[in-house]
Amino acid sequence: MTGTDPSGAVPDPRAELVESQPESDAADLQESLRQLAALVTGSLGLRDVLAHVATFAVRAIPGADGAGVTLLSADRGGSQVQVLASSHPFVAEIDEIQYVTLNEGPCITAALERRTVRSGSLGGEMMWPRFGPRVGRLGVHSALSLPLMLSERTVGAINVYSRAKDAFDDRAAELGELFAAPAAVAVHNAQILAQAQELTAQLQTALSSRPIIDQAIGILRGRSGGSADEAFGRLRTISQADHVKLVDVAQHIVDEAVRRARARHAQP
């Protein structure tokens, strides 16, 4: 039997839903932050980390249908995208329009101006007169973009989209900003780790290349009687003239010297 209040009125279930909504939103945010904190970047590539953060953002921000995370460097001269990832293919399509086709949109504005930006009617949005109508024709009408800030430095932005109009209110923006702060740290740490891994790979390549280069220098010195610096300069000149990596030039010289030596020893 349905309960009544003392006045005899039947409680409106919609009112109960509205009252419970803030608690549900807070729980979703807490769960997204928990997953963000548990994200182990060491076992994931940078793009995978960004994709996870985008997925967590969709849960943390009420009204979101999809999200994207972008690493970029931005200044008054424009913006340069370094890495981006999304939670849904339609977000990737929007990002292509924003960064590649038009170089205009909410993420770029958020990063340049270091502030949260939102729109509830992209089709008629004057801030982005080319981007807004084009995305609106795709059936996406609301956007919320949050800069990823570390102190005074912008490392990127989170873009959240909805197919509904006026999907993101003040509460959504507030929850988004609460999520963006730790997300910026997670994204930055993943970026630093990726750069360290890339540097390690480059050093390992250099170490493995050095013996071949040294052998080629020795061969050239034996032919010319010149110094090590002169032999290395010769290698570099050949590399630049032929548009071939230095180690590949050195490998060719060593292989050719070995081939000639074997041919000499094979003669009667």
Question: Would you kindly provide a written description of the structure presented here, covering whatever features stand out?
Answer:
This protein is of the alpha+beta class and about 270 residues long. The protein has eight helices and five strands. The protein folds into two domains: about 170 residues, Beta-Lactamase; about 60 residues, Winged helix-like DNA-binding domain superfamily/Winged helix DNA-binding domain (Arc Repressor Mutant, subunit A, Orthogonal Bundle), CATH 1.10.10. Helix content is about 60%, strand content about 15%. A hairpin with a 2-residue loop joins strand 1 and strand 2. Helix 1 packs parallel to helix 6, helix 2 runs antiparallel to helix 6 and helix 6 packs parallel to helix 8. The longest helix is centred in the C-terminal third of the chain and has 55 residues. The N and C termini lie far apart (about 110 Å). About 5% of the residues have low confidence.
Which labels suit this protein?
alpha+beta, 5 strands, 268 residues, 5-stranded antiparallel sheet, single chain, Beta-Lactamase, 8 helices, elongated, Arc Repressor Mutant, subunit A
Task: Break the fold down into its secondary structure elements and pairings.
Elements: H1 13-37, H2 46-60, E1 66-75, E2 78-86, H3 89-102, H4 106-113, E3 117-119, H5 131-136, E4 142-150, E5 153-162, H6 170-224, H7 228-242, H8 246-266
Antiparallel strand pairs: 1-2, 1-5, 3-4, 4-5
Helix pairs in contact: 1-2, 1-6, 2-6, 6-7, 6-8, 7-8
Name the structural class: alpha+beta
Largest sheet composition:
5 strands, antiparallel
- The rounded Rg comes to 29 Å
Count of discrete domains? 2
CATH architecture of the largest domain: 2-Layer Sandwich
User: Looking at CATH, which topology of the largest domain would you report?
Assistant: Beta-Lactamase
Q: How helix-rich are the residues, as a percent range?
A: 55-70%
Enumerate the strands of the largest sheet in spatial order, edge to edge or round the barrel: 2-1-5-4-3
The termini sit apart by: 110 Å
Q: What is the assigned CATH homologous superfamily of the largest domain?
A: GAF domain
Count of beta strands: 5
Q: Output mean pLDDT.
A: 86
Q: What's the order of the H and E elements?
A: HHEEHHEHEEHHH
**Approximate shape:** elongated
Low-confidence stretches: 12-18
Question: Counting H and I runs of at least 4 residues, what is the number of helices?
Answer: 8
Determine and state the CATH class of the largest domain.
Alpha Beta
Beta-strand residue fraction: 15-25%
